[in-house]
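Reviewers of the previous submission asked for a worked example of the structure-prediction workflow described in the proposal, so we include one complete record here. The input consisted solely of the amino acid sequence. No template or homolog information was supplied to the procedure at any stage.
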Amino acid sequence: MSGTSEPLVEEAVRRHLLGAAYRLLGSVTEAEDAVQEGYSRWFGQSPAQRSAIDNPTAWLTTVVGRICLDVLKSARVHRESYVGP
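From that input alone, the workflow returned the following structure tokens.
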């Protein structure tokens, strides 16, 4: 593991990301999924790409936030297209 990614695996960072995702989504399960997806995108980058990021925690917070917004947008579209009885 490179030195750049170490702050991301700290419990405090994970709690921060979960808190932000929960405040956006209102669901612990969806928040955990968003954080996991954010970590997946972080570790899916090459070491060179990760080392080019000055503040990994801020980068990951932004990514998780965008994932949450995408979830909310897809939920709204799903609700609007529902044709109930």
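DSSP finds four helices and no strands in the chain. We consider this example representative of the routine output the project will generate in years two and three.
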